[in-house]
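pasting for ref
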Amino acid sequence: MAESRSCIVIGGGAIGIEMAKILSELKIETTIIHSSDFILNRYLDKEIALDMQNALVENGVKIITNTLITSIDEENLKDSNRKISHVRTANGQHFEADGIIYATGFRPNSFLVANQVALGDRGAIIVDDYMQTSHPDVYAVGDCATTKLTNVKEPTYVPHASDAIRQGDVAGANLAGNTVQLKYSQGTYKLNFDRDISLCMSGLTHEKAKQEGFDSDVVTIRDQYVNGNAFFEAYLVYEKVTHKILGIQCKGSSFEVGAQAEIISLAIQNNLTVEDLQYSDFYFKHGFNNPRSFTQILADAIRQKEKAVK
């Protein structure tokens, strides 16, 4: 890698984006090739995803979307020990790079039990709230098992470290008898874009909420320090009539957005509304332009949006 001048990252999900950021910081010419309309499409709605995409482009990362790869081959350079990788796409594009990183997602490794326990989404092993499979003596956790997500009808394959750890703890506790049930997941993630800026998300995107049958809407807020560059932006997905919280996507200084995502994750788990959180006892945000809690600011934003519609 120290001798590499260029690299192609195949896949614009969480791992692909983090790898591209690292490579770019190492001054390696980096190109992301992604099959969907925008990067991080499984995690973010298009509006906030494009903000992150533009930030990567401004830092020198080339991003190619809506593109499928049809072939990859290597060429040995004459009079050199180096190899060049050639990537060709369905729409006739040709890319060259010193190396390729595959970040196209996961598939569950369930082949060992494929004909012995029930399989679900993408071939992942179906488990219940105790992590027990369809065979009473077999438990499954982590990247081979399904995950139950709050507000999502069907168990889903969601390979994620924090879910795997929780599942392992629950399965271990239940080996002597099912006594501990796993709380549903909200799919809470955190991506660090640089030393000061992070991206966090929890719950459903607006598009996913609509797919699950919710009459949903979104509001966006921003607050920042009076002195300094620290800030946060929050993009809240909620059910229109009830104001039930469905999801959040937020970016900004690492501590602020991390805390916000965890609060909203707990709120989604407990089917809370924006009003349930509005006057909760959160600390006073000294130094911010608006020092009230972000939940109060979000509630105000929803009221203003509904008033404008009327």
